Amino acid sequence: MKKLSKQIVFYCVLIGIWALVAKAHIWPPYLFPPPWGVAESLWAGFQDHSFWIGIAVTMKRMLIGYSLSVVLGMILGLAVGSYKFLEDTLGGLLVSLQSLPSICWIPLAVLWFGLTEKAILFVVLMGSLLSVTIAMEDGRKQMPKIYGMAGRNLGAKGFRLFWSVLLPASLPFIVSGLKQGFAFGWRSLIQAEMIFLSLGLGQLLMMGRDLNDMNQVLAVMILIIILGFIIDGLVFRTMERKLQERWGLVPA
Amino acid sequence: MSTNPQNAYPIPPDHRGIIGRANVLRGKPVSSVAVLPMRPESTQVVPKVALDGISLSYKTNSKGRLIALENISLQVQPGEFLCIVGPSGCGKSTLLHLIAGLHQQSSGQVLVDGKAVSGPGTDRILIFQELGLFPWLTVGQNVEFGMKMKNISKAEREEKIQYYLRLVHLSKFRDSYTHQLSGGMRQRVALARALATEPDVLLMDEPFAALDAQTRDLLHDELERIWAETGRTIIFVTHNVREAVRLADRVALMTFRPGRVKQEFAIHLPRPRHIEETDVARTAREILDCLRDEINKSLEVEYADEKAK
Ligand SMILES: Nc1ncnc2c1ncn2[C@@H]1O[C@H](COP(=O)(O)OP(=O)(O)O)[C@@H](O)[C@H]1O
Ligand SMILES: [Mg+2]
User: Fold this and answer.
1) Does ipTM surpass 0.85 in this model?
2) What is the pTM of this model?
């Protein structure tokens, strides 16, 4: 509760300073938009549904792209973590690929898929896949062997062994990787939308730029921050809290 | 391969007073000319578990191999409580993992009900030395796990969760996570989880080694009661000779590197027993003397080898 009130005061002060600077007219409003201008733009955007549609499209892409990368990343990570040969070969490649910003994949994506939804999803996938894969590989290695043995002992095998034992057993070791993968994927998506200009928040942001409407640009930026924050708080924090409750990583 | 169970347990002559011959199986006499039957359906008892010339070696980092088990032959009768005793590192865990199908032997056979097995099976459930309870599941879900894997119906699972949690006195903790429990309680969860799959053979790997004496005594009583109630075959590993005498129908003594079964002792003390009883203590002493003899003998052999080099 104390933390929340601190945060509220902090943001009020921040907006207050912003308002004061804007009021001082040091820079013209088209260069330095005032908070009320941004608020107006937000209101208008939600009124004419363009923001709602943008959010919906972006979230849908994120959901599909991220889900794909989680599934693929887990399979890849598990394979690399399980077989020494793959670890020595593919494992090294994956680590070196991590230094490549996923936006670099755009030319190839456009070549392969054209200016389509698939190309955007591909960029999101490349953004988050590596983090998930590497996290899963580490998780597989860090996970105590006893869980897999206990599972087999109790009659689990094949997919059920993976789903009911190996996956939940490695979750505490991969949750930070899943989170990082989400953050990378989210950035890649907005970047891709800014370039592809086909709906979504990224396109709304570029539209603001083209119309020289800095109010809209800031409004969309704020939306992107808030959405990312909400997902982090709702999905990943909850997951981490649940894990702590169950595994007892932190004294209650 | 015909084995007479009476001759399978060589007993030093000076121990005969207290440790009788293994011709009594939970109070029921076995035919004194028990020759292994050609066909299992005859009146003779087929061993529940039979190890037939088992050897197993581990690869070590250097090119060498460590012989963990060497030529182990052992038979366990249905409903019998067998304790395997041996110094730490002699291959007790390895042996249980092998019976559970989690390790592969280098040579020999594991027979269950006269049939060779390889790989895990829910007829043999192992309670690991480290327990291996699933921290992401509640106590109830842990107990349910094996039954789920066996595709037992929801209603039946529910009934058995309640039954087995009551059996180990943990009904109140059904919705707790395992990290919230004490060591003794966790041990009981592991027992309930293993029992709930209703295995014919229960394999227990030093289950009470890490517990304080009072908790351990209590769990001995509970285990004996559950064994009597459910009629399971139990193979129980420990390095504590007294614990073995407290619990077992028969004690098998293992030696260190290579792991071998050196001797077997039938324990005829009346049940229920207590670990502090003088009879238990005395019997344990005699086995311990024997164990010490074996250790000394093997040490002498090792020294002799050293000198010869
Ligand atoms: N995975 C393994 N790789 C190599 N050596 C092992 C492995 N597991 C056990 N050993 C060795 O095999 C021997 C028997 O081990 P174990 O069965 O755990 O003994 P115990 O349970 O009687 O203490 C020990 O000397 C141990 O060092
Ligand atoms: Mg052991």
Assistant:
1) no
2) 0.76
